[in-house]
Amino acid sequence: MIQLKNKKALTLLRIAALIVTLTSIYIFAPWQFALYYFYPLPANVQAQTQEAIEQGIDGIIVYIHKQGQQPEYFANGWHNRKHKIPAYPSALFKIGSIRKLYDAAALTKLAAIGRIDIDKTLADYLPSLIGRIENADKITLRMMVKHKSGIPNYTDTDNFDWSITYPDPLALVLDKPADFSPDADYGYSNTNYLLLRKIMSNVLGYDHNQYIKDEILTPLGLTHTFSSVHEINLVALNKGTFFDEQEQALYASLYKYEHTGWVLGYSSIARYYKDIDTVVVQFINTNGDDTVMLTEIIYNRIIDIVTAQQ
Q1: Could you read off the pLDDT of 157-177 as tens digits, one per residue?
Q2: Is residue 9, in this structure, part of any structural domain at all?
Q3: Rounded to the nearest 10 degrees, what angle do helices 190-204 and 99-112 cross at?
């Protein structure tokens, strides 16, 4: 009798655990976003931007540029909800880590002309970091570009606060153990590109941002950094056609023609699709909670619409 009661109690506990688990998934997991991916596609991109707003996004801008055609712009929702300003395509936008596309392109150009050797180590270029960053004498610039260095990400440290501007964010990871041995794994780290920017500036003898402006932004038609999106040839940047043959081969070995960006209040995706010879950029002024998944789903649905229209 006692054994039977124990079995019944165990069964009831299992049922209760199952109910709690399913309830938690329903309440806390972004299951509705996952289901949304399978919803029928709307007729066009503008309709998809409206769906994005209905899914809880405050504002969205989409830029589509197929090689040989005029770029298209779409906007929906709010640029500023508080002041009732509608979203508009020429709005200034924080691109976050999409700037790494420019950093990698600048490094590629410097490597192609022999100013930088991407197979030299971090210690070769910044010897003061020997003993302060683990494996500095084994980590190459190539590993850093590809996030295979093992250097900890300063934005993941316990003391990091996105709302604070740090005079020297590198200090947050000095003397910290490596996440893994050089070239043994992949780990996205903003510290890699912080260091690469320092190296480029040291080699150039002036701010690397000026080099990016002179060698990349100006040739592409972006005459100052915070211009609106229609002033830049994003196809050339994302496709790599502003590189010569040597630079293009080097860049392709280091980096994909794509990136995403995230800063407080903003998220963005920029990718080139070779099969349709098109660049698609999406800017969204909402992040946090589960919107990372949602913004990626919205973007993928836009790609499906663009592909179907080819």
Answers
A1: 987 887 777 888 999 999 999
A2: yes
A3: 40
